[in-house]
Amino acid sequence: MSLPHAILTALVEKPSSGLELTRRFDRSIGYFWSATHQQIYRELGKLEAEGLIRALPGQPPARGQKKSYEVLPAGRAELARWTAAPHDPKPLRDTMLLRLRAAAVVGTAGVEADLRRHLKLHERQLADYEEIEERDFPPGRDSTEDRLRHLVLRAGIDLETFWTQWIGHALAEFAELPGDEPA
Asked: Which residues of 124-151 are buried (b: 16+ CB within 10 A; e: fewer)?
């Protein structure tokens, strides 16, 4: 996924200002595609220059007022093209996995404590996702939009469930290791 397509998606869902987009990224899209405030504003400028979005018509914003954007037909067409195109999965790149591999040859000092920290982080994220699921997806919300958004959330729940279980297995393995000697 690319940031321009994430922004187009968010703007198709609801015309927004850069600040509103930043907040929406923090609350939803950012769980699986993060972007800084500066990156969002930079992309808004590019998308506008490419004719994919425009500032909402009306009075130009005065100093300090928000400029809101909407997706133009060309932007919707680009988003549809991108959505329909095949994309290969990205290879897993996780620092913890690489650190475990390195620990096999240089020793495990600090790794177990960081695994416990990671476990807490993943448990907290899982709890957040489950709270969102309970709040935003009660039984009976089964429009296409709701079902697909829920599917994205379920991916987050399943991924965090995987990580909490895997870290539990890793910590059990650490409990059986003979010591902090390299292999």
From this structure: ebbeebeebeeeebeeeeeeeeeeebbe
